[in-house]
Amino acid sequence: MLKAEDYMSKETAWCPGCGNFNIRESLAKSIAELELPPDQVLICSGIGQAAKMPHYIEANGFNGLHGRALPPALGACLANKNLKVIVDSGDGDSYGEGGNHFIHNIRRNPDLVHFIHNNQIYGLTKGQASPTSDPGMVTGVQTSGVAIPALNPLSLALVLGAGFVARCYSGEKEHLKETMKEAILFPGYALIDILQPCVSFNKINTYRWYGERIYFPTIEDPENWSEAMKLSRQWGDKIPLGVFYKKARETFGSSLKFLQGEPLAFRSFDPLETAGAQEEFF
Amino acid sequence: MDVNILVGGAAGQGMDTVMNLLGKTLVRDRFNIIYTKDYMSRVRGGHNFSRLRISSQTPWTTNETIDLLVALNKETYEIHRINLAPSGRIIYDPGLFNLPDEEDRGVPIELEELAVNAGGKIMSNTVAVGALLAMLDLETEISEKFLLEMFSDKAGVAEENIIALKAGYKSAARHCRACFPLTRRSDTSKRLFIDGNQVLGMAALASGCRFLSAYPMTPSTGIMNYLAAKSGSFPVVVEQAEDELAAINMALGASYAGVRSLTCTSGGGFSLMVEGLSLAGMIEVPLVIILAMRPGPATGLPTRTEQGDLDFIIHAGHGEFPRAVLCATSHEDAFYRLNKAFDLADRFQIPVIYLSDQNFADTHRSIEPFDYNRLVYNRHLATEQDYKKPYRRYAFSESGISPRILPGQYSGETVLVDSDEHDQDGHIIEDGPTRKKMVEKRMKKIVALSAEMDEPDLYGDPQPEILLIGWGSTYGVIREAVDALSALGKKAAMLQFSDLWPLPQKRLKNIMAQVDYSFCIENNVSGQLAEIIHRETGLVVDQKILKYDGRPFLSHEIVREVEKRA
Fold first, then answer.
1. Which domains does chain A have, with CATH numbers?
2. Could you tell me the pTM of the whole model?
């Protein structure tokens, strides 16, 4: 059996103290503890600091374009249903540039997980507002402070019918790891919005700022959508962590009988199998 | 023998129904036909029409001259009477409108009344087909059989349609029985009755395509419709993407994971896909993109035709990477050409763009069945013996092509692709020497790729003085122009490109050295192929015959221009 360290053999290029290190460690541990071999795991990402994850975890990797982590992940999980597909990217990538894919893949409910490193800032481009930056945050571009409300990814996901909606914090590694495992085992689209300090560019949402705010509410019924919605809207003085909502529904492609059995990717083919298709045109 | 039929009316009046029933009947009855559509970008109203030509020779284009005009409204008569042959006839419903007193070519058929008597107004079109059959001196049996097949799951509907068909037949026979007798093909082999989009959908299926993600866009949507109807009977996933960005990226993900993947669109959608095209070039994941052209810029003329995207396609995408661009000269060619596109994509691990256009996509022709034994199926994947362990996705090689395996295919091996510049393992790099080697590795593929490009089709006089150069769907009309010029005593030939990029140059250079006059004939305003030929070979094509009103060429337009200038 592989240990978490075996999944983390590569050097990283993140800033010292970055929240990404804990997220990487939790991810490696969750994969190791679930005993998923690297060749059966696919990590998809877009572009950004978080999106470098496919380079830092030993697994198959598709490090695609900015904002476009989800579409290839969807294609891959249909082509080879045996792959455990993990989309791991940042807030700008997932909620900004990739907003349309975020919306529609929640509707589709493919069997994949979506882990979003949410540091409320654009790190790779050196400190502009992200869709989740709080109003008032001053940056080199938002010189008078962010003037529009932050996007609430968890409320949005709930409204769109996501079956697994959770919030974690990179400073709570054990909770993050356990939640990741739960998400990976969940059938269908599973979202974890992972709060994460950016030590280089976000001087507001720091480790200390989060430390004073996060708490673990008691969630009695994870199928209670209204309660989940309330938790998702809590922000400011108190920030709840946990699996707010969990209720499986039909996954994308499960109604396609031909996807059962051998993955499409490994099936043989002979053009003559389709020769009957021209009959209808006679 | 040459009979030209035009059916016109407002959008929603069912011109397609008439042509599909009539076309199917004629093809089964051993006639050569072509059927083209001219329609507006609206669901109801306006003026739409379809043309159908029956010919003893292979008809490549529909004619402007009309022998039989089915006017489903008065506007159709007013617009098209100018092209109606003196001996032509007009089928119209006197219950809806009357022809002018001086018009003596009318064949009044109570289309609606006869349809209502048969069971419903909706069958007016079937009445019209019955009338056409009588005037063409055909019987109704073949149509009856087809109606029974078409409505096999709707009891009573077929029977009512047959009543409508016979009523139309009987009514027309009173006025004009056998006014336009036809000659059948002598051979009895069966023919397909199929449009361009259906050919491409069927070719994708026959090439082992298992994944199509696309966003609906005229005139490419028919490909999606075709494959969607086959999903289930065949293991092909068809997904309507939220936008074209998603469409191309989904297809790339599916292809990376191991299935042959396709996306299709028109110019506007392709513009959105350009980012993903560049990604395909960088990550070296095979992909076929069908671009069915329509006039731009922007939304342009959504339901019309143009060849305006060639120059764009060749250069589309940021950065430099190899690609192939193919198109087809005919429905017959398209089937094998798209198969080749899939093969090239897998073999060279590159994006391949297949250029179609509205004229090709929406045109039905009667053609010989496809020979499935001619199709190639090879995924060009590496076996465990073909690569050094551990696996490196971008291992350097002499050809520039790295052995390709699939994620999860071999125990212990992982596959990493990256849109950043990367090393042989697929990991991000920034150093100059690796970057340089990777650029060269990708670009090296062009050498072997160029050798795979088919030379353009040559047709006509073996020692031509006049050369007509074209590409793609204009094959038929240029061929007819060459025939017409030959009949006028001119020594003319056609050179028609199907593989466009990398541009095959050998035959072009040989023949350009021999001719006195060369013409590029293109459905665009700038003569894009002529420009590409000049850039790539230094050769200057003397003249350009260009059409950019959104309509396909007519052969006499080409003949007239050639006669004027050569």
1. 4-281 (3.40.50.970)
2. 0.97
